[in-house]
Automatic annotation (TrEMBL), chain A:
Organism of this sequence: Herbihabitans rhizosphaerae
GO molecular function: oxidoreductase activity
Record key words, sorted: Oxidoreductase
Domain FAD/NAD(P)-binding as annotated: residue spans: 1-299
Family annotation (InterPro entries): BFD-like_2Fe2S-bd_dom_sf, FAD/NAD-bd_sf, FAD/NAD-binding_dom, Metab_Enz_Cyan_OpOx_G3PDH, Opine_Oxase_asu/HCN_bsu
Tagged with keyword Oxidoreductase: yes
Top-level taxon of origin: Bacteria
Protein name, per record: Thioredoxin reductase
TrEMBL record, chain B:
Record organism: Herbihabitans rhizosphaerae
SUPFAM superfamilies listed in its UniProt record: 2Fe-2S ferredoxin-like (SSF54292)
Molecular function GO terms recorded: iron-sulfur cluster binding; oxidoreductase activity
UniProt-listed InterPro entries: 2Fe-2S-bd_N, 2Fe-2S_ferredoxin-like_sf
Taxon lineage: Bacteria, Bacillati, Actinomycetota, Actinomycetes, Pseudonocardiales
UniProt protein name: 2Fe-2S iron-sulfur cluster protein
A Pfam family annotated for this UniProt entry: Fer2_4
Keywords of the record: Oxidoreductase
Signal peptide: none
Domain of life where this protein originates: Bacteria
């Protein structure tokens, strides 16, 4: 059973099917491809022997003595009419991907402020621009394709701001060599930006959004190496949309539910993409942010290994090794620096769902001596809303650590036994149970 | 394909999500928060943040960025916590 039909999941399902396993591919979107292949004509087809469950949300995972049980709701997103099914498989491949990390700043909850991935999904998937005058800010190479996609939908991209310096790659010469192909792709985006006269500025970011009822302007500022604001460099710019993206956060809850060991916030895997839980494999952004090509190579390795019948192809193993070197370089060139914590004011929301401000968070830390993630959540309500800490978890953990000097493990915010929301009425329904014994 | 947004007839394309249709018609918010009454619309765009909740055919808490429109859908602004 493969969860997630992006580049990693598609490759894993194909490899497992070709190795002779019976494969189910479960994905919440109406069609396969994940975030990367959204709206692209080159999305790889689902292997004809793979059973693809589209529009299907996995909301619970349980490891049992002879395999793994997942509970799925199939149907229109969040509709009460979805059909429930419980599936069992003896091997499980998790390819649940990642989502943009957004750092909080005053006004980041105004409508018109969106994540870079959200803007990309609208542009690539629907040909819709999130605004007419858009500014893009954050860190990492993903900001570039978002800028070209937005320009392609007719929006004016006012500027692209990279919070880190331009020299980050010089610290990772090995990564430059390993990622020659990827760099060419990025150079292509940079050229497109230049051709459309979109300014690209480094060591600068959006530190505040302003507006009544929606974003109307932003303040940008230059940052020092630690991402503290350089006083006197603030500039106000009129925009009607802001796209922010500070790297990506892996979608961890199913891996956590399966008991997979994490390392540095990602799922730890061996050379065969096996996790610490027997029978559970992981591929793609879940194991480290490395892009679609690396994800697909990891998927091929995981799918073959999970089918447990043939040798893992050497080419895929080599592609994974090369891809990881490039991914490490990527991470080294685009770190998140602690100075972002100084962008917030007391009334800046940390948790958007429960509307917990920075002052509210600090109050809970001081008054209730919230010295762990669980206490922090229960006393401040941060991370208790519908997103279950997906957006604020890491930010809240880092703000808390900065405030008390204690240790707050961001992975603790990824414990979500209910992995996707289900309605109470759905829980009350009878479900069919299907076995996939002896199969992946 | 015809849908309504707060009672106003609107044309939508097959395959379009609720969020895409709302943004295309120039709307940036379609919910207000239950504590501060603040307006919210699209944020993550990929089903993670639950900011873009909207009422579809009388059912609240539907992620506008995930729900694909069906002909005749009635979309309505969500006010605070609706049960």
């Amino acid at each position: 059973m493969v969860v997630g039909a992006g580049p990693a999941g598609l490759a894993a399902a194909r490899a497992a099917a070709e190795a002779g396993a019976r494969v189910r591919l479960i994905d919440s979107a109406p069609s396969a491809g994940g975030q990367f292949f959204r709206g692209r004509p080159d999305v790889p087809p689902v292997h004809p022997k793979v059973e693809h469950l589209a529009d299907s949300a996995v909301w619970h995972l349980e490891s049992v003595h002879n395999g793994h049980t997942v509970r799925v709701r199939t149907g229109p997103a969040d509709a009460p009419v979805r059909r429930g099914v419980t599936l069992h498989a003896d091997a499980l491949i998790l390819a649940t991907g990642a989502y943009d990390r957004a750092l909080p700043f005053p006004g980041w909850d105004l409508p018109g402020v969106v994540t870079a991935g959200g803007a990309q999904a609208m542009a690539k998937g629907h040909g819709v621009a999130v605004g007419r005058r858009v500014i893009i800010a954050g860190t990492g190479p993903f900001l570039l394709p978002v800028a070209t996609s937005l320009a392609g939908t007719g929006a004016t991209v006012v500027e692209v701001l990279e919070a880190n310096g331009p020299a980050g790659w010089l610290r990772a010469p090995r990564a430059l060599l390993a990622g020659a192909g990827r760099l060419g792709e990025l150079a292509g985006y940079a050229k497109a930006l230049a051709a459309q006269r979109i300014p690209y500025r480094t060591r600068r970011t959006v530190i505040a959004a302003h507006g009544t009822g929606r974003v109307e302007a932003v303040t940008t500022a230059a940052l020092d190496n630690g991402w503290r604001i350089r006083p006197g460099t603030e500039r106000r710019i009129a925009v009607d949309a802001v796209c922010v993206g500070y790297g990506f956060t892996p979608q961890l809850e199913l891996a956590v539910a399966a008991g997979c060991r994490l390392r540095d916030g990602f799922v730890e895997v061996d050379a065969a993409q096996a996790t610490s839980t027997p029978g559970v494999f992981a591929a793609g952004e879940l194991t480290g942010i490395g892009g679609a090509k690396l994800a697909a190579a990891e998927g091929t390795v995981a799918g073959t290994a999970a089918a447990a019948s043939v040798e893992v192809p050497r080419a895929a193993l080599r592609a994974v090794r090369q891809g990881r070197i490039f991914a490490d370089g990527l991470a080294a060139a685009h770190p998140i620096q602690d100075g972002w914590r100084t962008w917030l004011t007391d009334d800046t929301l940390v948790c958007r769902c429960e509307e917990v401000t920075l002052a509210g968070l600090c109050d809970a830390l001081d008054r209730h001596r919230a010295l762990g993630v669980r206490t922090l959540k229960l006393t401040s309500r941060v991370g208790l809303g519908p997103c279950q800490g997906r957006v604020c978890g890491r930010n809240a953990a880092e703000l808390a650590a900065g405030h008390t000097g204690g240790h707050y493990d961001p992975a603790d915010t990824a414990r979500r036994p209910i992995a996707a929301p289900v309605r109470l009425g759905e829980l009350a329904e009878e479900e069919t149970v299907e076995e996939m014994n002896g199969q992946a | 394909m015809k849908v309504t947004v707060d009672g106003v007839p609107t044309v939508a394309r097959p395959g379009q999500t609720v969020a895409a249709a709302l943004i295309e018609r120039g709307q940036t918010s379609w919910r207000d928060t239950r504590i501060g009454g603040r307006p919210r619309g699209l944020f993550c765009g990929i089903g993670v943040c639950f900011d873009c909740l909207v009422v579809v055919n009388g059912v609240p808490d539907v992620r506008a960025c995930q729900r694909v429109l069906a002909d005749g859908d009635e979309i309505r602004t969500q006010r605070g916590a609706e049960l």
